[in-house]
Structure formats: C-alpha cells, structure tokens
C-alpha cells in the first residue's frame, strides 16, 4: 500500500468512526436526551471527536504494519440513559445507530462500485470506504462491553437472562479496558478469519467490481 493509499485509508477510518459516534448522539437526542447536543458533539468537525490513541496512533500502526484488519474509535459521544424515553429498546437504539451509520455508508459505497460509472481509481477508493465501514459495523456489534453490540444484545435477550447480562455489561463498562482486552484478544486470535469475513461481506455487497 503506497503512502497516498495509507493516508486515504486512515482518513476514511477516522471520519467513519466520527460519523459513528455522532449518530449515537443524534439517536439519543431524538429519544429525548440532549446531552451530546449541549456538549457540542453533534458535529462532523473532527476536532471534538478525535482520540489520539484510538483515532490516530492505533489505526495508523495497524495500517502501517499491513495488519489483515484494522479499526479505530473516536471519543465516545456522551449521553444520559436516564433521559431517554422509557422503553426496553431505547438504549439499544442509541447503540445500534453507530453501526447502522457505517452499514449505510458501506451500502452507498457498494452502490457506487456496482454502478461502474466512476472508473477504476474511484472504485478502489470506494472499496476502501466499503471495507472500513463494514469492518467498523461488524467490530462494534461484537456483544462484549463496552462495544455497541452488548447493549443491543441485552435488549434482545429474554427477561430471565437480561438482568444477569446487564449486570455483567455494566461491570465491564466500569472497567472498559478489560472488555477491550477481551475483544482485542478475540480479534487477534481470529485475525485472518476475521479479515476474510470482512472481505467476503464487501464482495457480496459490491459484486464483481469489488477490489477492481
């Protein structure tokens, strides 16, 4: 991967992670919690969102080392679950809004590739956008706290299991480094299989033009 491709991939990763976080705040705002709006976080200006380690150093290191997978995160957009409209799925909707935004971006990139209207160079750029956003959507839906998938899973579990899982989720969220360590071990152990899964989804979405 040449320097321009490396820089482009890193920029796509950072911007996609920022959109992911902003959509958490938008969903919370629509459900009655204005915390993110009052904090000035409902903006695509990257400055309030960039996390030095999660947005730049770690993803940059993964890309430069030609890792088979990569990921990033922005500073979490704050929200207060007690301000959300009452309902079993309110917090899950806020959580799912982030991965959903990445899925929408991936589908748009796939549609541009399938249109065959932009040329090979743009197809390569759209392929990067597609892969990055599929990766972010899948990674964040892993149901291990503090990732979004844990909140979604809790809302979907039968009530008999929901309470126990919720206690475990909140305990790990108070110590997020434990949860992230579990996730990173999981991803590193399954690195090649995880990367192949991401590429398979990208190919399924973009068709024969994918990776052209």
What tags apply to this protein structure?
mainly alpha; single chain; 9 helices; 69% helix; 212 residues
Mean pLDDT: 88
Which structural class do the helices and strands define?
A: mainly alpha
Fraction of helical residues = 55-70%
Strand composition percent: under 5%
Q: Note the run of SSEs as H and E.
A: HHHHHHHHH
Rg is: 17 Å
Please give the number of β-strands.
Answer: 0
- How many individual helices? 9
| Sheet with the most strands, sense and barrel status | none
Q: Mind explaining what this structure looks like?
A:
The chain is an all-alpha fold and 212 residues long. Helices cover 69% and strands 0% of the residues. The chain has helices at residues 3-30, 35-38, 52-64, 90-115, 120-140, 148-156, 159-174, 176-189, 191-206. The longest helix has 28 residues, at 3-30. It is globular and about 50 Å long. The model has no long low-confidence stretch (mean pLDDT 88).
Gist of the model:
The chain has helices at about 5-30, 35-40, 50-65, 90-115, 120-140, 150-155, 160-175, 175-190, 190-205.
Give me the secondary-structure topology.
Layout: H1 3-30, H2 35-38, H3 52-64, H4 90-115, H5 120-140, H6 148-156, H7 159-174, H8 176-189, H9 191-206
């Amino acid at each position: 991967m040449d320097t321009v491709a490396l820089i482009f991939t890193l920029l796509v990763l950072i911007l996609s992670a920022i959109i992911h976080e902003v959509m958490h705040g938008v969903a919370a705002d629509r459900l009655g919690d204005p915390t993110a709006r009052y904090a000035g976080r409902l903006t695509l200006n990257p400055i309030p969102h960039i996390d030095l380690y999660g947005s730049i150093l770690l993803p940059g290191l993964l890309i430069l080392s030609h890792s088979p997978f990569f990921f990033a995160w922005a500073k979490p957009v704050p929200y207060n679950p007690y301000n959300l409209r009452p309902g079993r799925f309110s917090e899950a909707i806020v959580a799912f809004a982030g991965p959903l935004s990445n899925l929408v971006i991936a589908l748009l990139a796939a549609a541009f590739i399938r249109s065959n209207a932009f040329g090979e160079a743009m197809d390569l750029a759209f392929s990067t956008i597609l892969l990055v956003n599929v990766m972010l959507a899948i990674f964040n839906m892993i149901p291990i706290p503090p990732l979004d998938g844990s909140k979604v899973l809790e809302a979907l579990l039968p009530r008999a299991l929901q309470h126990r899982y919720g206690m475990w989720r909140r305990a790990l969220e108070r110590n997020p480094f434990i949860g992230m360590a579990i996730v990173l071990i999981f991803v590193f152990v399954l690195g090649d299989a995880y990367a192949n899964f991401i590429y398979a989804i990208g190919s399924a979405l973009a068709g024969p033009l994918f990776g052209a």
